[in-house]
Design a protein that fits this description.
19% helix; alpha+beta; Lipocalin; 335 residues; 4 helices; 10-stranded antiparallel β-barrel; 18 strands
Length: 335
């Protein structure tokens, strides 16, 4: 991170000397260090939330591995319940982490991640002869993240089923969350009549989902204007591969799922640009540097689900587990 601060400082120095004559080299270099510190903070703040978003988007995709009649339609309203783990709610900062900022009145502090509480500390520095002082960003301050979504499926020929999911933007404290996606399931137990005769079903599914999570971030004012990094977005593309098996007991179906997903992460600062943009493209510089923390990740999950039929309605609940624990409840209607 220190190397990135120096690189930004050199770029800032060149840019400022072209735009604003007479600025001190020290101030120009400090701009670079300030942005480097913001990048360091952003990684520790948002990565736990985007990791959690993958788990929230992974649950309850396959309602049942059972093959239904061709062109049957299933539509459901679900509620996802994510349990926020304590270990991902905070992180430590200390003055030695930073090149520009210091913690006001302390040498170290515990601050919330995006999944954490609303505790805040002040970070301070000096630029252009004026103090730069702001509060660290708050977390969502919720022990559970709950959001509703719609999911539907249509049975296709040869034991295939098309699945789609959509949630509107869910308002969190200090942020928003949205997920949508689609996939294809294929029933394999149809090839084994003796297995199906015992009301045992197998299927595999391939699914794509998009997660968009955003948080209020750093509202920093300087002698050169507001930096315009007030909002931080995590954009996640996830590919899920899933094996499902179930056993029917009259109206009740017990389902087990094994899920492997691979996610690509992108982080961007967004929202209104700050007044400093007239002389320095802060958002573009930060977004270029945020590519350095955009690492791909693979997760393995297990899921247990129960589904109970009442006429054409189905009540279903599930729990997915791995690094995190995620619950899901829903009601579906079979057309």
């Amino acid at each position: 991170m220190r190397k990135s601060g120096i690189i930004i400082g050199l770029f800032a120095a060149f840019f400022f000397t072209q735009k604003v004559k007479g600025q001190s080299a020290t101030d120009l270099e400090q701009i670079g260090y300030l942005l480097s510190d913001a990048l360091l903070y952003s990684e520790q703040y948002i990565v736990p939330a985007t990791d959690a978003a993958v788990y929230q988007a992974s649950a309850a995709w396959v309602m049942s591995p059972k093959k239904r009649k061709k062109w049957d339609v299933n539509l459901g309203l679900h509620t996802n319940i994510f349990l926020v783990p304590k270990a991902d709610r905070s992180f430590q900062i200390q003055n030695s982490d930073f090149q520009f900022f210091e913690i006001e009145g302390a040498t170290s502090a515990t601050v919330p991640t995006a999944l954490g509480n609303d505790n805040q500390v002040y970070l301070v520095g000096e630029l252009g002869g004026e103090q730069v002082r702001f509060k660290t960003p708050e977390g969502i301050n919720q022990e559970t993240v709950i959001y509703p979504y719609l999911q539907g499926g249509i049975e296709l020929p040869y034991g295939f089923e098309f699945i789609a999911r959509y949630s509107t933007k869910t308002k969190l404290k200090r942020g928003d969350y949205q997920v949508y996606g689609f996939g294809l399931k294929h029933n394999f137990s149809q090839y084994f009549p003796k297995v199906e005769a015992k009301n045992i079903h197998f299927a595999a599914a391939a699914i794509y989902s998009k997660e968009d999570i955003s948080f209020d971030f750093l509202d920093i004012n300087t002698a050169y204007g507001n930096l315009g990094i007030n909002n931080l977005n995590g954009l996640v593309d996830t590919y899920h591969f899933q094996l499902s098996a179930s056993k029917e007991f009259k109206r009740f179906e017990l389902i087990g799922n094994f899920i492997v997903n691979h996610s690509s992460f992108e982080y961007v600062v967004s929202g209104d640009k700050g007044s400093i943009e007239e002389i320095f493209p802060v958002q573009n510089v930060i977004n270029d540097l945020l590519k350095r923390i955009a690492k791909d990740k693979t997760n393995v999950l297990g899921e247990i689900s129960g589904r109970f039929q009442i006429s054409k309605f189905y009540l279903q609940s599930s729990i997915a587990f791995g690094k995190f624990v995620n619950g899901n409840i829903g009601v579906q209607y079979q057309f």
